[in-house]
């Protein structure tokens, strides 16, 4: 096997030295070696892709749909995405020039931040938050600015936002809002979104609104930031969570045409275009009544799982904000147990073979918490709660 020339190790972007591997993946890899481990670590839906969606992908292949698509995605999928946003959230985007199909929402995150950032720019990140935004900001030359929301039930308040803007001023290029939230499952009401929009409206801050879990809200209908601040919002969404299509890697971003044109440059030179058969499947998922029903069926199952895990953990003494969306429980470790969340999660995995994610992986405010993904079968969740109960009893 070849061995790198030692002097080449100093050739890389020096900002990579500031980036650490994903703490979620690292912990998942660590505990995977434990025999009979039951993992509730990754946000991976346990459902299979519905048959009619798979059939659309197969038809694309057998019809020899094997040539380059338009860089921004097939017009069929962009129209499906535009109609989906209009139907579900009353948003008006033109398929031709205001939507880009991305390789998952992760590529959308990379495309937006890479397009926006110059060295020294700052990005506001309300935490705890999905950690991917942090390294992408750093590698892009930006500086993450964390706003700990744990003191406000994991909701960014207008007062917190105003204070951050006053402190960091014109260096703030963007703010990331992820709701329903990974890791907390907390989401925002229409009034809360409107209040944040009122603060941001008189700034030049771009709002990166990651709404990938928008279809998985349980108690109230999801309200998009783009409804109140469309002129400076880049909306991210996709089919990974709503239709259990994580492996198909199809997301999309939407925004004003002038901004999307700039984003299209980085997108084009990074991935050229998404895969045709996957785009055909996503168009089927977003444009058909069957696709809508798929999500409703999955959401009903997730809600039953949420209620079971939530009630069990409350009975064990955990303090848990009741998730209003997504498929995560973010639970504060009770007093009297290991308060170091990494030590707690490691001890739980080693002693009772249950793997959860330490809350500190999600930034300030996550310390002393654990995240559980309930995107698993009810049988697995019952076994998981039995193992957790046994651990807590000791």
From TrEMBL:
PROSITE patterns: AA_TRANSFER_CLASS_1
Cofactor: pyridoxal 5'-phosphate
Keyword Transferase found: yes
E.C. number(s) listed in UniProt: 2.6.1.-
InterPro entries in alphabetical order: Aminotransferase_I/II_large, AspAT/PAT-like, NHTrfase_class1_PyrdxlP-BS, PyrdxlP-dep_Trfase, PyrdxlP-dep_Trfase_major, PyrdxlP-dep_Trfase_small
Keywords: Aminotransferase, Pyridoxal phosphate, Transferase
Alphabetical list of Gene3D superfamilies matching this protein: Aspartate Aminotransferase, domain 1 (3.90.1150.10), Type I PLP-dependent aspartate aminotransferase-like (Major domain) (3.40.640.10)
PANTHER family found in the cross-reference section: AMINOTRANSFERASE, ASPARTATE AMINOTRANSFERASE
Protein name (database record): Aminotransferase
Organism whose genome encodes this protein: Leuconostoc citreum
Gene giving rise to this polypeptide: araT_3
């Amino acid at each position: 096997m070849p061995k790198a020339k030692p002097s080449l190790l100093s050739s890389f972007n020096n900002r990579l030295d500031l980036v650490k591997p994903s703490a979620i993946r690292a912990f998942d890899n660590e505990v995977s070696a434990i025999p009979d481990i039951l993992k509730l670590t990754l946000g991976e839906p346990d459902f299979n892709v519905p048959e009619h969606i798979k059939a659309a992908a197969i038809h694309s292949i057998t019809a020899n749909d094997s040539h380059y698509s338009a860089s921004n995605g097939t017009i069929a999928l962009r129209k499906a995405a535009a109609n989906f946003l209009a139907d579900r959230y009353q948003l008006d985007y033109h398929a031709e020039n205001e939507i880009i199909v991305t390789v998952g929402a992760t590529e959308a995150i990379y495309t937006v931040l890479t397009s926006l950032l110059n060295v020294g720019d700052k990005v506001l990140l309300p935490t705890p938050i999905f950690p991917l935004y942090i390294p992408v900001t750093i590698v892009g030359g930006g500086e993450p600015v964390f706003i700990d929301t744990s003191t406000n039930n994991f909701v960014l308040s207008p007062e917190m936002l105003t204070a951050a803007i006053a402190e960091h001023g014109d260096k703030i290029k963007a703010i990331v809002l992820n709701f329903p939230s990974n890791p907390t499952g907390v989401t925002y009401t229409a009034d809360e979104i409107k209040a944040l929009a009122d603060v941001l409206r008189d700034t030049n801050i771009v709002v990166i609104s990651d709404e990938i879990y928008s279809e998985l809200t349980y108690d109230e209908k999801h309200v998009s930031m783009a409804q109140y601040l469309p002129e400076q919002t880049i909306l991210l969404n996709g089919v990974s969570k709503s239709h259990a299509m994580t492996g198909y890697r199809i997301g999309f971003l939407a925004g004003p045409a002038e901004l999307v044109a700039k984003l299209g440059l980085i997108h084009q030179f990074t991935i050229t275009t998404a895969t045709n058969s996957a785009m055909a499947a996503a168009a089927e998922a977003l444009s058909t009544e069957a696709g809508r029903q798929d999500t409703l069926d999955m959401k009903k199952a997730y809600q039953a799982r949420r209620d079971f895990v939530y009630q069990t953990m409350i009975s064990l003494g955990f303090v848990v904000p009741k998730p209003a969306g997504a498929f995560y429980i973010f639970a504060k470790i009770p007093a009297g147990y290991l308060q170091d969340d990494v030590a707690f999660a490691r001890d739980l995995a080693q002693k009772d073979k249950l793997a959860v994610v330490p809350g500190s992986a999600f930034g300030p405010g996550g310390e002393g918490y654990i995240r559980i993904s309930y995107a698993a079968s009810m049988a697995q969740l019952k076994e998981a709660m039995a193992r957790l109960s046994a651990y807590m009893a000791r």
